[in-house]
Amino acid sequence: SQKIEQNSEALNIQEGKTATLTCNYTNYSPAYLQWYRQDPGRGPVFLLLIRENEKEKRKERLKVTFDTTLKQSLFHITASQPADSATYLCALQGNTGFQKLVFGTGTRLLVSP
Amino acid sequence: EAQVTQNPRYLITVTGKKLTVTCSQNMNHEYMSWYRQDPGLGLRQIYYSMNVEVTDKGDVPEGYKVSRKEKRNFPLILESPSPNQTSLYFCASSLGRGPYQPQHFGDGTRLSIL
Fold first, then answer.
1. Among A16, B4, B61, B72, which is most buried by a count of CB atoms within 10 Å?
2. Average pLDDT over residues B37-58
């Protein structure tokens, strides 16, 4: 069956370190993968999109990689700050239906001062 | 300001009492959708609409209805709510129809069905 897996345990890191979040998928062949940030009581906010042929994409302190062989995307936040504390969701297009994004359950990141 | 607006933000109601959650976007987006978010299950799509008068089922459509009479509005209707529809609901919109389009989400509606 199709599955998107993100670590359900919170990731705790110290301010200034690099946070790395993982998104693994099975039985999908996505052409695009997206990452969102969600704060408590708020809707998800789009961060980055990466195409299957891009391998890596950067935006300020954020970096996303996409390895279609490993079926995995990594999301990095460098020089992390307490304001980066949030839940991060990955999303990819499912194999059925047009423009149906399927979301992972998210990983909570906690950055301590 | 570009935004997706949902109302109400919170609602406690009883089983069987019809309710409507409104969603409006001011970005002239073609594509709109509804999701529910439950602990451990993530965001699941309920219904989506590619344009006015064009709607289709998502992954969990049972017990819900939608309509798209105007481009900016996409209300979610629960004709006879039941306790298993207690959840956090999000409306989203995007420009165009491709899977590469970022989704813009509202701030959510927390529904409790007693």
1. B4
2. 92
Which of A35, A49, A99 has the most B C-beta neighbours within 10 Å, making it the best mutation to test the interface with B?
A99
B38 close contact with A: CB closer than 8 A:
no
Q: What is the spatial distance between Cα B23 and Cα B26, in angstroms, rounded to a whole number?
A: 10
| 3-class SS of residue B26 | coil
Beta-carbon pairs below 8 A across chains A and B: 65
- Cβ of A51 and B108 within 8 Å? no
Q: What angle do CA A96, B74, B22 make, to 5 degrees?
A: 130
β-strand partners of B89: B36, B109
3-state secondary structure of B84: helix
Residue A85 · residue A111 · CB < 8 Å: yes
Q: Render pLDDT for A71-85 as a digit per residue (tens, 0 to 9).
A: 999 999 999 999 999
Beta strands in B14-94 (DSSP E): 19-25, 31-38, 42-51, 54-57, 65-66, 76-78, 87-94
Residue B34 confidence class, pLDDT cut points 50, 70, 90: very high
pLDDT tens readout for residues A25-35: 998 888 889 99
* Residue labelled with tokens 């949030």: A86
Positive or negative, the CA dihedral A15, A22, B100, B74 is negative
